[in-house]
Please model this.
Amino acid sequence: MASRPTSEPSPPTLPLEHLAELSSAAGEDRALLALRNQARESLTPLLLPDRARHLWRYTDPTRFLPDTDPTDLTPTDVGPTWRLEEPLSVAGLLAGGALRVVEVDAHARKAGVVVEDLHTAQASEFLGKAVSESHGFVEAINTAAWRGGVLVRVPAGIELEHPIRLRIVAGPLTVPRVLVVAGEGSSFEIIEGHVGGDGSRGKVLGVTEIFAESRANVRYGLVQRWDPGVVGHLTTRARVAAGARFQMSLASFGGSTFKADVGAILAGEGAEVETTGVAMGGDEQHFDHHTEHIHEAGKTLSNLDFKVALTHAARSAYTGMIRIARHAGGSEAYQENRNLLLSHDARAESIPELEILTDDVRCSHGATVAPIDPEQLFYLQSRGLANLQAMRVIVYGFLDQTLARLPQTTRERIEALVAARLHTE
Amino acid sequence: MSDSSQPVFSCKDVHVWIADKEVVKGVDLEISAGEIHAIMGPNGSGKSTLANALMGHPAYTLEGTVKLAGEDVTSLSPDEKARKGMFLAFQYPVAVPGVTVASFLRAAVSAVRGTETPVREFRKELLSRMEDLAMDPAFAGRYLNDGFSGGEKKRLEILQLLMLKPRFALLDETDSGLDIDALKVVAEGINAAASQDVGMVLVTHYQRLLNYVRPHVVHVFMDGRIVRTGGPELALELEERGYDWLEPAAAGGV
Model:
């Protein structure tokens, strides 16, 4: 049998004993180690995706291969401390491969909200059930070797006034895992913020799973503002039960190469999913966003509005999957992706992917890639706004139209980030 | 206004090209503070091109000299002209979705006045001007020209005229697409601006706005040139006889 050339990049082998060591150092139970080993089994060189496959047509998968051993337990710098400046129900910080800070306010504590280290939490009922190791090689690496994880569980019927905020700090190699379980009829906002980047050398392979049980109302934000130079892949899947509502906001700003694979499975009748996103890229940033709205049950509704603004030589690819199963009649799905190019060298692609297996649906999609409208620019300039300021106003408006759909706190936060980003361009 | 020593606006021998087509073929104008000139002409005569080119539209090439209060502004960018007190009310105001009327106007007022107006003060001024123009206060929170009716867009142009207080304003077909009530409101705004010494050029091809705004001077514009200049009575004559009697001999060949 011909051996593969050693230069060919392949997924890490992850020695069994290293996984056992990681697992025991974190105090995990046997079931969790078994899941890690199972994921490790699937990590064969063949698992590296073919570039011709749609999900990897725009981004070289080998960029996400770890260049150090993910199971290396050498302690790393935890990074800056976190000052909380707003009322929160829960604050959780994942840094240096561990859950560092957890604050739960009195109301949430009394209501029975659970925030636990995922390594030692009893979560086998959920872990790997929304994102399995067979999802892809990044998810397999994560499932086998994740380090630093958090379980957030909001009991049935509990409504939280203040958001839950999770902050994940990128180190040299960061493999975080987040699990959120929203009990029946619960209602809350949860924001997963990604920051840091170890002086721009960081690599992040993250997986988040969310379970919205029946009639739950979950507003989830994924805000990525890594240091320049960070390479990262984040996968999020939500399983949305009957009558539950899942609102996802994406805001992508940082890193050098960022691939996001995010989506929701509308698993129960009457489930609703709304995805709202903005991405702003500059310099030579490369963004690759993939969204999936998978309608597995009837009378489900999904809506997606994703905006991208690019300057310099930034690149963006967007692929948006809508799948409506044969037995998911009476469903509706809408998707819109708009890309604004602010320079000659910026490039964006937008590819809707529809798999509609029943006739009993309403579905629409739209995509545009366009430079800034010179008539808009002239109009604003004729009112005294200098060229750069006029462009900022147009970009802000372009993105803000979409942000207007978000819950107030997330909206304000993302608007501030958009404004800050605009002023550095 | 006849005693003004210096015109607020003047242009001399202005030619405008779109690509290599000459659309405006030598125009001279002189407007004093508080003076209203009407430029009337048939569709396609180049009068809108003239207005846009004077403001500095990037698609047009302008030759000649443009002066604001004696200062040569020919080669300035549109925003520089605006900050020096020039204004163009658009025939087709552009929608900028996601940007509210209030936030846009505050940015424009700050840019033109060269100083930030405190929010409270700005809001008060805005609401009072909107009331003058019979505009619903909810208007301030709507996205700029996005989904506006023709009449709403034109009112908003006049609102900007009153808020930005230019020295000189070009109003491009501000009367088109208005019902009679809106036309009256717009005319009141124009008269209010004139009474505050704004010099103005109204570009139009209808006479009806001139029932409510009395111009000091009327120019007839055809085939890229001013072919005739007179008093308000010229507008009435055009209304009665159309433009054909003025057709320049050179353009009459078949």
Remarks:
- Chain A has one domain: 16-67+77-372.
- Confidence is low (pLDDT under 50) at residues 1-6 of chain A.
- Chain A touches chain B through 26 residues (CB under 8 Å).
- DSSP finds seven helices and 20 strands in chain A.
